[in-house]
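Need tokens for this chain, all 111 residues.
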Amino acid sequence: MNILNAINATATSTNTSTLVSGSILNATNGMSVSFTVKNTGVTNSVDYLILAGNASDLSDGVTIQNSATLAAGAVGTYSIQIAPFCYYAVKIASTSAGNHTTVEAKGRVRG
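Here are the structure tokens for all 111 residues:
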């Protein structure tokens, strides 16, 4: 399958769950979706989740992968072979308030 859409976004976590800017994948014409989320920080952990919906701004978004914690340097993944939604994105939040870290999110749509 060919790569139809790809993202590579970085963000710094905050105390509230926030969409990673630039992480929205358009899977409208694709089949499979995958994300790799890496905590690039060296001390603090981060919580991430995957959101999906059919509106391009994800105003109708639902959580399709519940929040998971990534320790410093850890990597988390998400993939689905037959994507039921049109748009997918990553949200992050600092695990412990005030202890922020950086995240790199990479995603692909294949078709």
